[in-house]
Amino acid sequence: MRNISESARKYLSVLNLPLEIPTFDYLERICHAHLNTFPFENISKLLYFRDRNRIGFDIPPFDIFVENHIEYHFGGTCYALNSSFKRLLTEIGFECYHIMLGKEHMGIIVIVDQERVYVDCGAAAPFFKPVRFESDHQNVSQFGKDEVHLLPVRPQNYEYQYIRYVQGKQNGKAWEFNSTKACQVSDFTEAIIKSNQPGSSFMTILRCQRWQTGKNRSVSLVNNKFGIRYADGQTSVTTLKSTEEIQAVIAEEFMLPKLPVSEAIAVLKQLNVDIFSESV
């Protein structure tokens, strides 16, 4: 069996998966486990920003990413999640590389059985399995009324488009990408720096999302709004009135009791963001 680092072994242990030979089936199980384990959240991002002069990084190195999940239940946004996910896949023997979507989002292409497939655990999107977007132009990654389509634009030039729909309406930007244009993490430096500036998207909000497919639902926190989306399309939203209520929901509903939410709320307050304000 392949030799992997201690951090990669811990990573697989967190996912509750053994080390296996790289196959499409194994990749699918990794994707599913990852979305159900690591939250999409900016709590860690805010704390890394607070501590940036001491720690010296914007995105955690692989070993720190793993240790901080174990100790604090950290996940991250796309750069932290997908950079570490790609490193794990490489260590266990998958042939893969990063791609850039819309000049900002970091995705991953994995080559399995001589086919390029798309994986992504950093978009809070329902990518529970690799997407065979080049051979299946009707592909859809779906949970309830949350759908992501990877559509051909100029497939002869390997150009595609990522479009997400929630409740039938486009959600966010449509991102174009070239499936053969491999990128390094360093190619995202400008986008990463921009994303860490006060006033940028994930520096003006409190955000946490986790898939719980065993319960047929997804739980989401946007500032002080706690939402649940079920596989059958039903949704519910509850307004939380205090930091203590948010901490309790993160612990009891998200099952992430170690996540230091109150510290992130304090960072936002220092950045003049009041998550309890109706105007946010």
UniProtKB/TrEMBL annotation:
Source organism, top-level taxon: Bacteria
Name of the protein in its database record: Arylamine N-acetyltransferase
Family designation: Belongs to the arylamine N-acetyltransferase family.
Any one Gene Ontology molecular-function term assigned to this protein's record: acetyltransferase activity
Cited InterPro entries: Arylamine_N-AcTrfase (IPR001447), Arylamine_NAT_domain_sf (IPR053710), Papain-like_cys_pep_sf (IPR038765)
Natural source organism: Paenibacillus azoreducens
